[in-house]
């Protein structure tokens, strides 16, 4: 680990809730510490089991040193969207109750700058920082901005956004790419596949860190065209593991790995030729960094915001998008059939993806945040 001039700065990264918020925060924390090793990094969340799992498994230094890289702080708050009046009032009371403890925590830790990574878990720490006149920044990782960041943008000194997002104005806008874990950035390029007629097709299926039943079902419904033709590595999520494992067994699918959660994503990405997944911002960023073509089934909620994460990539021909609707099973079957029958299908996707990536002339968000942190030393 190298650095130019070590200094001590206390930084809070407000994330949590989902892997799509937590993983970029972890990548950012590691980048800050790489550039500025004496920084004190705090990642805040809401105390979910997923947060604890991801943060604990990524919170050790080189060679799994015992010393923790960053501190974790949970504030027990909840979101309000889609909830009834009584539930919203209860949630509002919870915010007021936790506001005092959050203010006290920020003072105790002498936090100098706060970065909000979106979602309701970021609201309380960013709002508390604004009250204390601590400089706050927000980072919108999606092509379509979320409610929390739209509100918090009014309090922010600066806004980091991905190139596809046009939902902010009137503030300092910094265009960046999403942070990606260093171990994925270091994955060697597998090169250009000439065609798929002479190689084994290896499909990685990411049902999301918490699972995606409809995506999983779309895969299972197409087992007959995949059987004896491909190898599959399928992350099902906790809730869907037994159902999907049973389905593969019943359909006598060979060369299949089924797991609840993939802890070594670089290994899985190196293994795969192509990936089928949701279109969460973090997942899309990691697939692009690993130069792996994707077949995306965006999550059809929150205004279909995931589809915005891949709109330009789709237009470039560097991936395939399938709507998660009544025709999803059939449309996925058509794509899989083309993938298996057209020897040039995969290589065309990969070539288009590489052309798209070559034109993305932006720094990564973790790199930009690290330089902002340095300015508060």
Quick summary:
By secondary structure, this protein is an alpha/beta fold. The protein contains 16 helices and 13 strands. Helix 4 links the parallel strand 4 and strand 5 (136-140).
Tell me about this structure:
The protein has a seven-stranded parallel sheet with strand order 3-2-1-4-5-6-7. It contains 16 helices and 13 strands. The N terminus is likely disordered. It folds into two domains: 181 residues, Glycogen Phosphorylase B (Rossmann fold, 3-Layer(aba) Sandwich), CATH 3.40.50.2000; 175 residues, Rossmann fold (3-Layer(aba) Sandwich). Strand 4, helix 4 and strand 5 form a beta-alpha-beta unit. The longest helix is centred in the first third of the chain and has 25 residues. It has 377 residues and is of the alpha/beta class.
